[in-house]
Amino acid sequence: MEKFVIKGGRKLYGKIRISGSKNASLPILFSSILTGRLKLSNVPDLKDVTTTCYLLQKMGFEIEKNKDVVEIESGKVIKTEAPYELVKTMRASILCLGPLLAKYGKAKVSMPGGCAIGLRPVNLHLKALSKMGADIRIDHGYITAEVKGRLKGCEITFDFPTVGGTENVLMAAVLADGKTIIRNAAKEPEIVDLAKALKKAGAIIEGEGTDVIEITGISELEEIDYRVMPDRIEAGTFVAAVGLAGGEIELEEFPFEVLKAVIEKFEEAGLKIEKLDKNRAKVKKVGKLKGTDIITQPYPGFPTDMQAQFMATMCLAEGVSVIKETIFENRFMHVLELQRLGADISIDGNTVVIKGVDKLIGAKVTATDLRASASLVIAGLAAENTTEVYRIYHLDRGYERMEEKLQALGANIKREKSELPY
Question: For the modification 2-(S-cysteinyl)pyruvic acid O-phosphothioketal, which residues carry it (predicted)?
């Protein structure tokens, strides 16, 4: 296992490029099941991407990776099973269920794993696919699904806007018989990116980015050649890093349009974010930030995936900040670790109160999930002395060479072997 060793106190200066979106790449990679051929560029070099490609390879797809380009082609024999050994490490692996059913009429997928930040139930996926005609059962930790003939287009109303559920049904519906209407659909930009990719293959989709999506099924899709959108959460994380460490940086491939809620809150706190051109931002910290409240919400609200990083930034802000988490339960596990660095934070149910302190002091801390690990790293940049962040395998699932990008901005951070067995 590995850890990050960070010597804090250095301000950040320089220029880096934001990588392609992890949360857009994964469903588009799984959409290759539907098309048989896919060429995807701007793909980030991440553990979850590697896991997805390996899973598709095990199913019988041929994979070729060259820098940020992934090419996938269907083999002669396709296995419609996603085994536990792979699925246990990544919750997004459930996204192969809809495409396998739509293309091959059957699927056997292990119940998914990933970050330990709440239930994130898959029952909404299963209920929707059942309504489309799939016979689904759960045995010994596996979801087994079959359909006779094609899936049937129908009207599906989600209990709440589920991103994964919307993506799974969207992919299943493009090859279904008839029209599918998804109501209370998630509006996340990554869903729009998936729809754009599928449309390039001939899919008939309307309303992506709204809460009602209409899909008219067709019998066959063409191949996809597509470029993934930039990662809005990585972009927001580097904004937060400047909010903590200070300095002035330039971010290329900055997704202004899909990061409005995050930009507004950081600007409200006093951070300067300047639009240099269509996709280039300058982020500058001038003086101390002030305490600012957020409530996590589905897009276009403040994203839950930026909650931990914003919390870390508020630890050194003037005054009191209140953060309310409405998307996931159990997503405050980073609080105890931030407290080890000297943060003044209290938890009451799904709400956190942060009283800004004058300084953070380096300590050994442990990452509990992907975004929590990012919050600890950026807190370590601002902390006095040395901070060691353990279990950074969480971070490697969603950030492309984060330490190298921070080093390019002048941070004193290095990856080392961990003396701990986890």
Answer: 115
pLDDT digit string, tens, across residues 95-142: 999 999 999 999 999 987 544 444 456 889 999 999 999 999 998 889
CA–CA distances in Å: residue 64 to residues 38, 125, 199, 227: 10, 30, 23, 16
Asked if 73 and 61 count as a contact pair (C-beta separation under 8 A), the reply is yes
Residue 42 labelled as part of a binding site: no
Q: What is the band of 361 on the pLDDT scale with cuts at 50, 70, 90?
A: very high
- Residue among 209, 110, 111 nearest 163 (CA): 209
- pLDDT, tens digit, for every residue of 188-215? 999 999 999 999 999 999 999 999 999 9
Q: Which residue has the tokens 């739509």?
A: 102
How far apart, in whole angstroms, are the C-alpha atoms of residue 396 and residue 398? 5
Distant-in-sequence, close-in-space partners of 334: CB < 8 Å, separation ≥ 6: 308, 311, 312, 367, 368, 369, 371, 372, 375, 376
Tell me, letter by letter, the H, E, C secondary structure of 130-194: HHCCCEEEEECCEEEEECCCCCECCEEECCCCCHHHHHHHHHHHCCCECEEEEECCCCCHHHHHH
pLDDT at 91: 79
Q: Which of 172-181, 225-234, 269-278, 328-337 has the lowest mean pLDDT?
A: 328-337
Judge whether 134 and 146 are in contact, CB under 8 Å. yes
pLDDT of residue 90: 83
3-state secondary structure string across 328-356: CCCCCCHHHHHHHCCCEEEEECCEEEEEC
Class of domain 2-19+230-417: alpha beta
Q: Which CATH class is domain 22-227?
A: alpha beta
| 378 labeled binding residue | no
330 assigned binding-site residue: no
For the chain, state the CA radius of gyration: 21
Q: Of 96, 115, 154, 315, which one is the catalytic site residue? A: 115
- Please indicate whether residue 115 is annotated as part of the active site: yes
Q: Give the span between the Cα atoms of 74 and 98, in whole angstroms.
A: 17
> pLDDT per residue over 21-62, tens digit each?
999 999 999 999 999 999 999 999 999 999 999 999 999 999
Give ranges for CATH 3.65.10.10 in the chain. Answer: 2-19+230-417, 22-227
